[in-house]
Specification:
This protein has 339 residues and is of the alpha/beta class. The chain contains 8 helices and 19 strands. Strand 15 (237-243), helix 5 (252-261) and strand 16 form a beta-alpha-beta unit. It is globular, with a radius of gyration of 20 Å.
Length: 339
């Protein structure tokens, strides 16, 4: 049985099965709802139910309080329809951005290589196109299981069939130790769905941008940089990549070449636990040293939650307003499951 779920603008609706999240149903219909994690932890997909019955699904109380539930608020990524529904997203929908419908696609591993300490580059050649926006991610199915893991595309959006991912090993992780760092091989089939996520560069901007990445948070930044340089979307870009030691950095020569070829692109790697010929210290401290003020700029932050939080605070000290700071946090699946 499928139910009709409608936005309260009276113009957009989708059909949702009883075991399908509201978010999934809308995205597959090409109807965009704001969202980030799809795991129930960020709260960016909250909606108010104006009519209809539903099940909250696995919505955690840390994200959706009892008071919110009593007020008819749901997490669209977790809630399931039990009748026809009318809902209102709490976050504003920017209709000026053209988003791509989420779809199921399959492909085969075209490349799998070690690029840094406990870090691999995975390239999947798809059987069909999966258009996406720079900075978005896909969910990959761990072969032989019903488990899905989220990884950001690192290639330019112009490459819709050859998708690149940067994946950090998680000790004991089902997707990494159990698959990508153990048995995965070139030629293996991989199923995925996407695109997903609010994070990224969706349109041209007039202000310079600071991009701060920690670890494999570099993946969506690479996509953003390639897209911006190809289409002249940002007047000046400062890319900071933080790691503990040189063994944690990757694609260094690639970004140095871009730095040389593009006068308005600046690559600044930083190491927090190793002295070397370039910058040392926390990546956020390097940014503070370089800018006395970030007024009139924007920022894109991606990496571990602690780094993203520290970077946001550092930029605020330099007068960069939170509304011009865009964030994506990488949280291990085990930590999400424990919450």
């Amino acid at each position: 049985m499928a139910f009709k779920i409608s936005l309260n603008d009276g113009e957009r609706s989708a059909l949702a099965s009883a075991d399908q999240s509201l978010l999934d149903a809308f995205l597959r219909e090409g109807i965009w709802l704001p969202h980030n994690c799809t795991q129930g932890t960020c709260g960016s997909c909250k909606c108010r139910v104006d009519a209809g019955s539903f099940d909250h699904g696995g919505a955690p109380f840390d994200t959706l309080t009892q008071e919110e539930r009593d007020a008819g608020i749901v997490l669209a990524c977790q809630a399931r329809a039990q009748s026809d529904m009318l809902i209102e997203p709490l976050a504003e929908i920017d209709d000026s951005v053209t988003h791509h419908p989420m779809r199921d696609v399959s492909g085969r591993i075209a490349a799998l290589e070690d690029i840094a300490r406990d870090t691999r580059r995975l390239v999947i050649e798809l059987d069909a196109e999966m258009p996406f926006l720079a900075g978005q991610y896909a969910e990959l199915n761990v072969p032989g299981t019903d488990v899905w893991r989220q990884y950001s595309m690192a290639n330019a959006p112009s490459e819709t069939r050859g998708l690149e991912f940067h994946i950090k090993r998680t000790p004991g992780g089902l997707a990494t130790d159990g698959w990508l760092f153990k048995s995965a091989s070139v030629g293996d089939q991989v199923d995925m769905k996407g695109p997903l996520g609010n994070f990224g560069l969706f349109e041209a901007q007039d202000d310079p941008a600071i991009l701060i990445a920690g670890g494999t948070g570099l993946a969506p930044m690479k996509s953003i940089v390639l897209h911006a340089l190809a289409h002249d979307l940002i007047p000046e870009i400062f890319l900071y990549h933080g790691g503990r030691a040189q063994a944690d950095l990757y694609d260094v020569d690639f970004f140095r070449a871009l730095d040389t070829d593009h006068p308005y692109f600046h690559y600044r790697p930083c190491l927090s636990e190793e002295a070397w010929q370039e910058r040392s210290g926390m990546v956020t401290d390097c940014v503070l040293e370089d800018f006395s003020s970030c007024k009139g700029m924007s920022a894109y932050l991606c990496g571990p939650p602690a780094m993203v939080e520290a970077a946001g605070k550092a930029l605020k000290r330099r007068r960069l307003p939170p509304r011009r700071t865009f964030k994506e946090e990488f949280t291990e699946a085990a930590k999400i499951a424990a919450e």
